[in-house]
Amino acid sequence: MLPLPFRFCALAALTLAGNPAFAANPDRHVVLITIDGFPAYLWRDESIPLPNLRRLAAEGASAKAMTISNPAITWPNHTTLVTGVTPRKHGVLFNGLVVRGGPGKPNTIEPWVDRDRLVFAPTVYDAAFKAGLTTAEVDWVAITRPKTITWSFAEIADPEAVLPREMVAAGAATAAEVRAASANKPNIVWRDELWTRAACFVFEKHRPNLLLFHPLNTDATHHRYGPGSPASISALALADRLVGELVRTIDASGRRANTTIIVTTDHGFKKVDKYIHANVALKQAGLLRSAGPTITACDAFVGPQGGIAFVYVTDPARRSELLPKLTALFTQMEGIAEVIPAATGAPALGMPTPAENQGMGDLILYPKAGYAFSGAVTGDAVVGPTTNYGGTHGYSAKDPELDGMFVASGAGVKRGVRIERIRNLDVAPTIARLLDVPLPNVDGRVLDEILEAAR
Q1: What are the tens digits of pLDDT across the range 309-331?
Q2: CB of 270 within 8 A of CB of 402?
Q3: Any bridge partners for residue 373, and if so which?
Q4: In the structure, what pLDDT confidence band is assigned to residue 408 with cuts at 50, 70 and 90?
Q5: What average pLDDT does the segment 290-310 reach?
Q6: CB under 8 Å to 394, separation ≥6 — which residues?
Q7: In 404-444, at which residue ranges do the beta strands (DSSP E only) sit?
Q8: Residue 159, CB half-sphere, CA atoms under 13 Å: how many?
Q9: DSSP assignment of 169-190
């Protein structure tokens, strides 16, 4: 007989497989759109022209704010949106896979590794695919070479993938456009437009049960010009137009009555005007060496992500020696609000300890408002002004300016529901409910208050 824990797991699996509540619905569609870097406070600003989004909200449900996950970065939060678990469980901490350099060397970040090397939790698209439904993604992240996506138009486009080849054959894109997208060359507004064409094309031609779509220009604009700037408002208005194009495609398909459209984001944004060059401070303390902009050797280094940074001791044998010195160094530094030991403090933030995930730093740094972390190692200034950089994210998920927006509309969603707050942890289990597929062991919950009664 199997040991008790294994008997329990086997029984649970049989229960899920045989439970009619989890009979996947091939007649339903869910479209999840994430407008990158869309703070809740800008969503609540009625002066920003967002007619398509506001129409979806009026016809469905919306939240005043959505709590995001730490670290407040694009890839970790996109992964939370589709897993329903925290980064401590799904493992994504950067916009890519952290590869340790070893003693005396900094880490590197590899963004385009296979999904299975990066994401350690089941996703709702895995669940849908395994239940016999079709799935599609356009510029989603942490999703390179997935085995459970039926049609893909990746951020770095693959000209040989089925969807790009179909678009070229149908005249929806040119071979030159796909090649340009594969080289990541054109500007982000151009790529958003191409990705919108891809999202419209795949829904019109294939009508996937689950479509993940991620326009990106808003994030780039908020970083450079700052959230709430004229450029920011223009970028949000453009994103609204792209959403409208996809909604009109869904309408024209005749499947609108069977489709739920969810529009949300990965994180909010804060304005910044000062950089903290934490690696310069390490160089001045004799803990890091560089040649020009390149770190050549280091006993410790800082991996910055805007409003958060991780401090790494490169040689584990020196951790107990160096951590007190590093803590003292950063505690007294201008612009730093918190220095948190990751071994004890990370789990409370929803992040793993260094023992649980090689990508986790030994210390977590949060800056004060108006400051952001830079990875620069040149020069002598530890703090200086930002240049062509007006905003960032990464700050604590408890910061209200990091709250995101959320709208759900269409099949299965009540009309006119307004709620104060959801969590991005709740999105994946709600999608799973809409598609009638199992997604067990999540940290989030189904948003029953916005859903119509079960059929």
Answers
A1: 999 999 999 999 999 999 999 99
A2: yes
A3: 276, 306
A4: very high
A5: 97
A6: 71, 72, 73, 267, 305, 306, 307, 308, 372, 373
A7: 404-410, 417-423
A8: 11
A9: HHTSS-HHHHHHHHTT-S-HHH
Q: Is 291 helix (H, G, I), strand (E, B) or coil?
A: strand
Q: Can you tell me the distance from the alpha carbon of 85 to that of 89, in angstroms, rounded to the nearest whole number?
A: 6
Average pLDDT of span 42-52: 98
Model's pTM, two decimal places? Answer: 0.94
What pLDDT, on the 0 to 100 scale, is given for residue 8? 29
| Distance separating alpha carbons of residues 134 and 307, to the nearest angstrom | 37
Phi, psi of 282 (to 5 degrees): -65, -35
Distance separating alpha carbons of residues 435 and 33, to the nearest angstrom: 16
The SS3 assignment for 343 reads helix
Please give the Cα distance from 287 to 326 (Å, whole number): 10
CA atoms of 219 and 222, how far apart (whole Å): 5
Task: Look at residue 453 in the predicted model and tell me its pLDDT.
Answer: 83
Phi-psi region of 361 (alpha: psi -120 to 50; beta: other; left: phi over 0): beta
Most distant pair of Cα atoms in the chain: their distance: 67
Q: Are 436 and 22 spatial neighbours (Cβ–Cβ below 8 Å)? A: yes
The tokens for 88 are: 């401590």
| Crossing angle between the packed helical segments 74-83 and 427-435, to the nearest 10 degrees | 40
Q: DSSP label at 413? A: B
Q: Helices (H) and strands (E) in the chain — how many of each? A: 16, 20
Residue with tokens 């670290």: 71
At 109 the three-state DSSP class reads strand
Q: Token pair 């958003």 is at which residue?
A: 192
Q: Specify the CATH architecture of the domain 272-389.
A: 2-Layer Sandwich (3.30)
Q: For 239-258, how does the pLDDT look when each residue is reduced to its tens digit (9 = 90+)? A: 999 999 999 999 999 999 99
* pLDDT(277) > 90: yes
pLDDT digits (tens, 9 = 90+) for 141-195: 999 999 999 999 999 999 999 999 999 999 999 999 999 999 988 899 999 999 9
Label residue 204 exposed, middle or buried (CB < 10 Å: 0-12, 13-18, 19+): middle
Q: Which residue has the tokens 């799904």?
A: 90
Residue 16, pLDDT score: 39
pLDDT digits (tens, 9 = 90+) for 422-435: 999 999 999 999 99
Q: Where are the domains of the chain?
A: 24-85+121-269+401-450, 272-389
Is residue 369 helix, strand or coil? coil
**Class of the CATH domain delimited by 24-85+121-269+401-450:** alpha beta
C-alpha 213/C-alpha 196 separation (Å) is: 8
The structure tokens listed for 34 are 């994430």
| Residue 417 amino acid letter | V
Classified as helix, coil or strand, 259 is strand
Structure tokens at 92: 């994504």
